[in-house]
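Interim report to the steering committee. The following record documents the input for Class I SAM-dependent methyltransferase (232 residues).
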Amino acid sequence: MHRYWDKVIKPILIASRPRTIVEIGSMSGLNTFKLLDYCKYCNANCFIIEQTPLYNVELLKAYYGHRATVMERLSLDALPEIVQYDLLLVDGDHNWYTVYHELALAEQMAQRTGRFPIVLLHDTDWPYGRRDMYASPESIPPAFRQAYARQGMEPGRSALLESGGFNAYSNNAVSEHGDRNGVLTAIEDFMKRSVFDLRLFKLYSHHGLGILVPSQSELMLTLPYIIAASGM
């Protein structure tokens, strides 16, 4: 998600001025440290949900202090413990079950506080917009888990490749499209049943970014211009 920082994420931060940020999926921290710099200089806080961070968590805490809270757990276990947040960045486990329920938990928070957060979701285009990937297949209930294999993909082909291809060592759903399959499908299914009036904006570079915004949000005044200026 860090590739969107300069043209999309930073302008959204400036326009919306979030006081509490949640990032799901930080990996090596390329986006995380930029979020924390924002928090440091704008008197905000960031919750980072990442099971296996690829950086020194203690050094991060020492530098950013109380601005940073690192939660080394599954997102669906950690999110309910965060009382309120204004901005949610989702770049963790790219499958229907996880993303749908991350959004459902954000909605539960919003029903308590009266305000749905701005949500940025990575991988809304190929390959995981319409295909599940499981970081930990055992964490997904069998009824919601597609048949999967450790085989790669190529654009324009639904079936997995026999060898090679993109993300060949990930647990990828055997088939593309269909019910309960993929990040974008999860967003669309959530929006159909949400009690909030939400708008979805989509960018298509770098595997896609979905921006989910309450229709009454002040960000609606500037977001179309941010997206147009980004060229993404």
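The CA atoms of residues 8 and 31 lie 12 Å apart. The committee is asked to note this result when reviewing the revised timeline.
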